Amino acid sequence: MTVKTIPVADAPFSPAEDTLLTGEELHAMGDIGRSELIKGRLISMSPTGHPHGYIEFIIGRILGNFVHQHKLGRILGGEVGIYIERYPDTVRGADVAFISNERMAQVKSRSYLDVAPELIVEVMSPDDRWSEIMEKLAEYFAIGVKVVWVADPKLRQIFAYRSLTNVEHFTANEELIADDVLPDFKVSVADLFGE
Fold first, then answer.
1. CB distance 184 to 150 below 8 Å
2. Domain ranges of the chain
């Protein structure tokens, strides 16, 4: 993922150079393209490629079917915004997220999730660096996310993190399970990457 900081003064929708945006202000801007808010500063990201979008959709569909069938909560996709920090606001975009009915009932924000989902899936892009991924993982665990799956399309493998030091590695010929957040869920890793 290539990120570029857009100085607030250069952004066509921002009134002042030193103004920090809130999550609510970012949401009110509508569709400005892929972006995240880091400590009040807007970070623009290039669109994902079609292989990334395909894998994101497959993972979301498989998880969505299971969650819907068992009435467990919601599967969210499309770079769903999640508050990581407030004042100044940091809003990260997750490829796919599962939030239980219990946690969803606690959400107060009308824009981005202000309650941590239990599971987040990050699909790696060709230019992603592990240091950036680990930074996001640390942020996710700090707000109460239980599990983060990092999907590596190039090697067709999943890394299931429960903390920065507790990780399981699943290859294409193995089954991925998520009993701690989705009891009885299991899927072939190969199926998550499509044909």
1. no
2. 3-45, 50-192
Look at residues 77, 34, 82, 71 and name the one whose alpha carbon lies nearest to residue 57. Answer: 77
Residue carrying the six token digits 């009891």: 183
Q: What is the pLDDT of residue 100?
A: 97
Q: Is the pLDDT of residue 134 over 60?
A: yes
DSSP H/E element including 67: helix 50-70
pLDDT band at 18 (very low <50, low <70, confident <90, very high): low
Instruction: Give domain 50-192's CATH architecture.
Output: Alpha-Beta Complex (3.90)
Is 158 exposed, middle or buried (CB count within 10 Å of its CB: 0-12, 13-18, 19+)? buried
Alpha-carbon gap, residue 60 to 94, rounded angstroms: 11
Strand partners, 92: 82
| Alpha helical stretches, state H, 71-172 | 101-104, 130-142
Q: What is the pLDDT of residues 82-93, one digit of tens each?
A: 999 988 988 898
Chain centre distance of CA 131: 16
The values of phi and psi at residue 12, to 5°, are -65, -15
Can you give the pTM of this predicted structure? Answer: 0.83
- Which tokens hold the place of 117? 């989902």
